[in-house]
Amino acid sequence: MGGKKPGFGKQLGDLHRWNAWITVILAVTGLLLAWDVVRGWLNGEARNPIKQLHIALGVLSAVLIVLYTPLMRRHLKQIRQRPRQKGNLAFVLVLLVGWFLSGIVLWQLRLFPPVWANAALLVHDLLTWVAVPYLVFHSVTRIRWMKQPERRAIKTAPAASPESSDPDRRRPYEEPAPWINRRQFLKWSIGAVIAVTAAPPFFRWLAKAGSGFTSTRDVMGTDANPNMMLPDPVPLPDSVNVIGGGAQGYFRPYTVTRFPKFDSNSWSFTVNGLVDNPGKWNWEQFLALSRAVQVSDFHCVTGWSVYKNTWEGIPLSALLQQAGVKPNARFVKFYSGDGVYTDAISLEQAGMKDVMVAVLHDGNPIHRDYGGPVRLIVPAMYAYKSVKWLERIELVEEEHIGYWEVRGYDNDAWIKA
Ligand SMILES: Nc1nc2c(c(=O)[nH]1)N[C@H]1C(S)=C(S)[C@@H](COP(=O)(O)O)O[C@H]1N2
Ligand SMILES: [Mo]
After folding, report:
1. Which Pfam families has this protein been placed in (predicted)?
2. Which range of residues forms the domain containing residue 125?
3. What per-residue confidence (pLDDT) applies to 202?
4. I need a surface site. Which of 92, 167, 358, 381 has the fewest CB within 10 A?
């Protein structure tokens, strides 16, 4: 880094160090937010603070790029003869800018139509998959001990003077030539370990991200359904035929508890609160209610979507009509059978024709992991309103703030057209 003007090398070094640490924390917080496994142990309380930290650091990392631009010319001149360093620089800049731009869209998701969010999430994820193994390798091999002895010596011996008469001071760190270059060997081993551990999940992810169309079995998971719901709901003809060719995309199974499990012997569905005719159904009675079919898109507020789902179920408006909503009722509150998750919409919103208490997806019973036997669907809103394992609907007067809304999500969940 030996710039001519004093301070240039130090400026670059400081930027590099800040960037390195910020990127490490961004990677850790980002993985905590994105990873299915971790999503389970992070309870709802932790998610929003981690997300805020991730966003703040993302902005900070953009500030570093701004600070770097005036130094860039000189830096490029300095590394003109070093293709490896130039390659590294280009890669890191592309990464940071790509992460930043896609991050802005994910941060301000509600300002964009869902396809933008889908694209941003894909870019954000793809860059992460490529970058994290590279950055781990880059950092580990930059640990002083890993470097070639000559290069370590240059870096760590500013006090050594070439004019010194003492030969030991002139070349202070010279070591005997290593047998089969141990460091090189270690570097490549680390690279290999990273490649072997990161590659399989990466290709699995790529295969999923790249395939637009998926069969219902894949969409809802290939495992046998852990719920014990008998009889099977018989689908309507339209639902069997799966209008529009079937769902496109993958659901990510979300839960804020351990996955609950249901049995038709003990399952029941309730509509009560401010209604004239409260109702309670067992599974068989519930399946006897008349059902409708709709095709709609499903959008999570974290950027993923599943398009063209064929849902079959009972329109919420039909349930409410049958219950006879009292004039003082203003909100409809939904309870999940997980015992924790709730959400609510206004009575007016509940009147939308496509709000549905769904029993079948693409002609199959809804898998337990995805909210079966019965889940709510509110296609016009982000999916945190679509309560899974729905088993009770209550008409209330006071506004209710749902599980995720208490923890930072906007109570207004409308999706931009
Ligand atoms: N009971 C319950 N319902 C829930 C959730 C949840 O964690 N628990 N997550 C919500 C969110 S944020 C989304 S995106 C969708 C996810 O549906 P899926 O798990 O079937 O993909 O369910 C919504 N309904
Ligand atoms: Mo979501």
Report:
1. Oxidored_molyb (PF00174)
2. 8-148+179-211
3. 84
4. 167
What is residue 110's DSSP assignment? G
Q: Which atom of ligand 1 is nearest to the CA of 251?
A: 21
Considering the domain architecture, whether residues 194 and 246 belong to the same structural domain is answered as no
Residue 203 corresponds to which amino acid?
F
Domain containing 22 — which CATH number? 1.20.950
Residue 287 Cα, ligand 1 centroid: separation in angstroms? 23
Minimal-distance CA residue to ligand 1 atom 7: 255
pLDDT by residue (tens digit) across 51-87?
999 999 999 999 999 999 999 999 999 999 999 899 9
Total residue count of the chain as it appears in this document: 417
- Please report which confidence band the pLDDT of residue 399 belongs to, taking 50, 70 and 90 as the band edges: very high
Asked, for residue 417, whether it belongs to a domain, the answer is no
Q: Looking only at Cα atoms, what is the longest distance across the chain?
A: 101
Residue ending a domain, choose from 171, 191, 211 = 211
User: Tens digit of pLDDT for each residue in 341-363?
Assistant: 999 999 999 999 999 999 999 99
Same domain, 344 and 225: yes
Q: Among the bound ligands, name the one nearest to the CA of residue 404.
A: 1
pLDDT of residue 217: 47
Nearest CA to ligand 1 atom 24: 387
